[in-house]
Here is the input.
Amino acid sequence: MGLIRLLPRSGAAQRAVEPVDDTTPEMPLQEALVEPPPAVSEPAQEPEPAEVMPVAVPAVQADDAVPAPQGTATHVIALANQKGGVAKTTTTLNLGIALREMGHRVLLVDLDPQGNLTMSQGLNPDVIERSMFDVLVHRVPISEIIEQREADLAVASIDLAGAELALSAMIGRERALEKALAEVRASYDYVLIDTPPSLGLLTINAFVAATGVIVPVQCEYLSLRGLVQLENTLAMVRENLNPHVGVEGIVATMFDGRTLHSREAIEILEENFGELVYRTRIRKTVRYAEAPVKGSSVLKYDPSGAAAEAYRELAREIVAAKEAEDGAQARKHA
Ligand SMILES: Nc1ncnc2c1ncn2[C@@H]1O[C@H](COP(=O)(O)OP(=O)(O)OP(=O)(O)O)[C@@H](O)[C@H]1O
Ligand SMILES: [Mg+2]
Here is the structure.
């Protein structure tokens, strides 16, 4: 089994991960434990063909890849994990609002046909007339479907469920989101994309548009195999569509420090992914479920609570990493 390359955050040592050789979708934490990764000499090894083939990776021309945008500091972050219920939507919203509180210009994009992000801002995806579906499939300008809520929000509607099928017949199907974002990209410092729990064409569109991927991982029910599968898909996107995208961080969610299980999950993540794992832990609390019912982020629902503070801390950690990265880029071009 080959080595899987993950892109480290700025300043972090590059990590390689020996994927877990299991066949069950989820496994006990002890069985998930793997040997610490061996050192990798440069150049980094290319991943071998995936043992677990990701879904819907399109055939494209390598020369279709576009260079990284110059002169723009917009960070486009896809929140992704094909496992359901790991807090992708919760993290997209609350991280986005925390970044906004810090003064950054933030666009949230709901790319999930479930429309949970849209709902968690008090909008009903069932009655929304124009949404990301129209942007991706009918090329409606994204500015026309952005709603001003706690942050700007490109909404999803129930139609989005048909987007993968409609897109699959279109030329440039993997670049529809990247092209749509070009119109508004310069107006934002951070674009956060909430993706569905799959590695299908909508998630591929997010990876193609993204400058980086943040992976929320539920501490309770850790699947290293799932992370390897995600990285395999990202490796194919890097090879064919967006050479600049990689996992820039893993955020541990639903952490319960009182249980050995949760603490073990963190240990396993850190052993395997090192500095890719954010220091901020998102603890388990019912506040995160309560806030969307009120159509708001936890930062608005309970501004002084620990739940809100956790996402502020995560936002500060991410911004610090970005500033270090931007500084390094500026020095490189000076
Ligand atoms: N830290 C947390 N503690 C407790 N509950 C949480 C936490 N984060 C999220 N939740 C709750 O867990 C559920 C799943 O969260 P969320 O919808 O954000 O996951 P998701 O990964 O977006 O799911 P899906 O894959 O279905 O899109 C929600 O009810 C949410 O309120
Ligand atoms: Mg979700």
Remarks:
- The pocket of adenosine-5'-triphosphate (ligand 1) is lined by residues 84-90, 112, 114, 116, 197, 253-254, 282, 284-285, 288-289 (CB under 6 Å).
- The mean pLDDT is 83.
- Residues 270 and 277 are 6 Å apart (CA to CA).
- The longest strand covers residues 247-255.
